[in-house]
Amino acid sequence: MSDVITQGSTQMLDALREAKRPAYVCTIASSETAAIEGLSIAGASAEMRRYTPPADMECLFYGRARSIPGIAATPDGIPSPVIITMAALGLTKLPVFVVDAGCEVPPQTPYFRVGDRPADSILSGRSVANAAELYERGWHLGEQLAKVTDYLLLAESVPAGTTTALAVMLALGLDAHGKVSSTMIGGANELKRQTVESAFKAADIQPGSLASDPIKAIELVGDPMQPVVAGMALAASREVPVMLAGGTQMAAVAAVIAALRAADPNVADTAGADRLCIGTTRWILDDTTADLVDLARQVGDMPVYAADLDFGKARYPGMHPYQAGLVKEGVGAGGSAIAALSYGGVSKAALMERIEGVYAETVLPMLAGDVT
Amino acid sequence: MSDVITQGSTQMLDALREAKRPAYVCTIASSETAAIEGLSIAGASAEMRRYTPPADMECLFYGRARSIPGIAATPDGIPSPVIITMAALGLTKLPVFVVDAGCEVPPQTPYFRVGDRPADSILSGRSVANAAELYERGWHLGEQLAKVTDYLLLAESVPAGTTTALAVMLALGLDAHGKVSSTMIGGANELKRQTVESAFKAADIQPGSLASDPIKAIELVGDPMQPVVAGMALAASREVPVMLAGGTQMAAVAAVIAALRAADPNVADTAGADRLCIGTTRWILDDTTADLVDLARQVGDMPVYAADLDFGKARYPGMHPYQAGLVKEGVGAGGSAIAALSYGGVSKAALMERIEGVYAETVLPMLAGDVT
User: Fold this and answer.
1) Is the ipTM of this complex over 0.95?
2) d(CA B176, CA B257)
3) Rounded to whole angstroms, how far apart are CA atoms A371 and A289?
4) CA B11, CA B13: separation in Å to the nearest integer?
5) Which letter, b or e, does each residue of A298-320 get, where b requires 16 or more Cβ atoms within 10 Å of its Cβ?
6) Residues B325, B187: Cα–Cα separation, whole Å
């Protein structure tokens, strides 16, 4: 399928095309890490970033946020990638489930509550005290979800999540420096490096020192989304194919899964390893300051699929910054778009038209000052 | 099917037998009403009743409770009907989803959080301040669940729920006095009558005065389970058959649904009315101090099915009190048993044997003092 770029085996993409009842599950969380100045623009300000995960989920249910006016956006007003997810899920009618792994502000939607607190800053050296519990809850949830779907798309919305992704991948021994993406152009790689270095000092760990204890790595320098999605993916992939729908944040989850498997081969049957893939956007693959494909290679050659979206000629200039490398991914935008293009049988043109429609419905009123 | 007693059309029972992927969804809540002495024995004491809903859910996931030792039981040690649900769901492998409509103590399982507070006592005259919000959240959850299942069993675990059921049915104008069941023999009907009378005084309402405003009735004298299950049932029954799995508490939900339909015919398409039934145990039908069948008749001739369970000759004497009319129903015990006997193709003897097995695994160690 030319509208989806593939790296590695296409088996998981074929499975999605042939799925009968896939489901979309988005895990959200917040952490004090997002308050570090300069690290995240997933929200108009540090204060507003607290509302980005719930606002994204509210958009999926109600067509606009409730916790904030309109829709989440960067300080420059570039809309959350949720506009892509809204369009893709609207076209495919996929069931939507929200998982709260630990949000400062809970979403005003139905949601699975698996965590009861946001993460501390990774600068504390102990960011997710309840990581083991989150992993167990995620596992049990994944078992149940696998019974009601035949293909699971696991998405995320976690401000500053690429920094915690970098930290966890380094703790697990991956060669990850300079390979994680960001909402920002350039990726703030140097600030991320410094932040992770400080976090490692506070946690008293070295790169690779937690290679055999991934849950501990999350407990010290991760975020709450990671253990929940790892648990869900491992349990569910025993039964059904699972797409980790996201950019380099999902590479970190894949790294956790690979480390858990290495530590305990019984954690999943052999077949499960072939039932995992990463689904993202082409902007992540185009990111010259990151390398998702290499990260996926490092965690056992996980296939990577990317929706070949092109916002360069979008009708609304406010969408063009995506093409320049801003925002790029989140809320499972890429995975949802892939589902629309494969399972949904939607053409790239029809998907673009719907994304523009969602932009017109959600962002234009904000720009016109018509949103309260 | 001789193992299921039927009242009214058998169409919904046939649909369950032919279902491909039914799902079990249990909504739990707590209210200060359960603290009124003599009203509920769903828990060994008023203090322990706070833990009954989460403990029931933990049993479904882990085979025993985590919030309390072992399993919930009456003051006399008669186990929660969850032993029936555990057996039936274990045999059918139905997916299990927990919905927290407002629990004092959240369950240590994955769960949908739709409410954030337990109900006040109905004696306050305003027991569920967030009833309208709970109804809306339930509706949105039901929409999503209907996409992943082809038959929905909606269960409940709400201590003192028959009292709030009585109050809501009376507020809606049903002839309900002396017709609701109870965990207790005799049903504490007189205490319930007095309690509801006091609640109506505090709320300044009369029997029937809220016939056209069922959400208001719940807000004043109901419990949080009612609006959530009513919303889920209405939304889901547009697409798939829905069994209200419970005794007279579910008659109250059915009454709320009927009143919502009468107030706004657009709330569900016509077909939806034929996609609802009540599933319970034979002990509810045998209850001479109650009349579920008449209540179901009053809310539009909703079909009632009852699992023909017989604990009179159970291997363990601790199960015999069920046959004498104690406990009787809860946690969707009847509906789950019906699912096992129809969809699951399980014989009554095999179901009984598994219930005895669950009793041996969960209750015997408690009686032996082996549970901490």
Assistant:
1) no
2) 16
3) 36
4) 5
5) bbeebbbbbbbbebeebeeebbe
6) 10
CA separation for the pair B340, A23 (Å, rounded): 26
Is residue A371 in a domain?
A: no
B233 contacts B99 by C-beta, under 8 angstroms: no
pLDDT, tens only, B50-83: 999 999 999 999 999 999 998 998 888 889 999 9
- What range defines the domain where residue B35 resides? 4-365
Q: Which two tokens stand for residue B14?
A: 């046939």
Q: What percent of chain A has pLDDT over 90?
A: 81
Q: Has residue A372 been placed in a domain?
A: no
Residue B1 scores a pLDDT above 60 = no
For residues B31 and B322, the answer to whether their CB atoms sit within 8 Å is no
The contact set of A with B (CB < 8 A) is 21, 23, 61, 93-97, 100, 106, 109-114, 116, 137-138, 140-141, 144-145, 147-149
**Mind telling me how many Å the CA of A309 is from chain B's nearest CA?**
27
CB contact under 8 Å between A141 and B110, yes or no, is yes
Q: Count the domains in chain B.
A: 1
If we measure between CA atoms, which residue out of B284, B107, B89, B65 comes closest to residue B73? B65
> What residue type is assigned to position B60 of the chain?
L
Q: With CA atoms as reference, report the closest residue to B300 among B280, B274, B318, B319.
A: B274
A138, part of any domain: yes
Write out the two tokens for A24: 């979309």
C-alpha to C-alpha distance for B310 and B322, rounded to whole angstroms:
8
C-alpha to C-alpha distance for B96 and B234, rounded to whole angstroms: 20
The Cα of A99 is separated from the nearest Cα of chain B by a number of Å equal to 8
pLDDT digits (tens, 9 = 90+) for B159-195: 999 999 999 999 999 999 989 987 777 768 889 999 9
Q: Which residues contact A272 (CB under 8 A, 6 or more apart)?
A: A234, A237, A238
Does B144 map to a domain? yes
| Cβ count within 10 A of residue B171 | 31
Give residue B346's identity as a one-letter amino acid code.
V
Report the CATH number at residue B111: 3.40.50.10210
